[in-house]
Amino acid sequence: MKIDSACHCGNIRYEAEVDPAKVVICHCTDCQTLSGSAFRTVVPTEANSFRLLTGKPKVYVKTGESGNKREQTFCADCGAPIYSGPPGADAAVVSLRVGTIRQRDQLVPGDQYWFRSAQRWLAEMPAMKQRETQPVFDAKGSFGKD
Ligand SMILES: [Zn+2]
Ligand SMILES: [Zn+2]
Q: Whole-model pTM?
């Protein structure tokens, strides 16, 4: 399916083709650190379908446990992760960060990688308290009263 994406500030926009059956969750500790969250949701592009429309992502090269280097790209202005790929500008397939894809509600994960480092509380989420929005931050930055 065709998807399109914009980072939070809108400076970086791209479009691509993806197969919705290939959406995966990655629980590796690098994804936890780099996303600032419990896990990352990713989908690979169909070969040579990635088209950067505006902006230029900043690149951080990480070395994985395998020794392979991967470029992690993000918006230098708002910090939103964009994609990862092999070093160099000629990658045929890159791994998109699903959270910045406009059609993300249609991209449902079907597999989980690196489950050995998954946060154990994820299994308890259905039983956790759920709020439609959030309590308001007060002027000093803490959450207000309910
Ligand atoms: Zn941005
Ligand atoms: Zn990962």
A: 0.92
pLDDT by residue (tens digit) across 98-141? 999 999 999 999 999 999 999 999 999 999 999 999 988 888 88
Residue 76 C-alpha to ligand 1 middle, in angstroms? 7
pLDDT band at 146 (very low <50, low <70, confident <90, very high): low
Domain ranges of the chain: 2-119
Q: Decide yes or no: CATH 1.20.1250.20 for domain 2-119.
A: no
> Is the dihedral angle over the CA atoms 103, 60, 113, 37 positive or is it negative?
negative
Question: Measured in angstroms, how far is the CA atom of residue 121 from the centroid of ligand 1?
Answer: 30
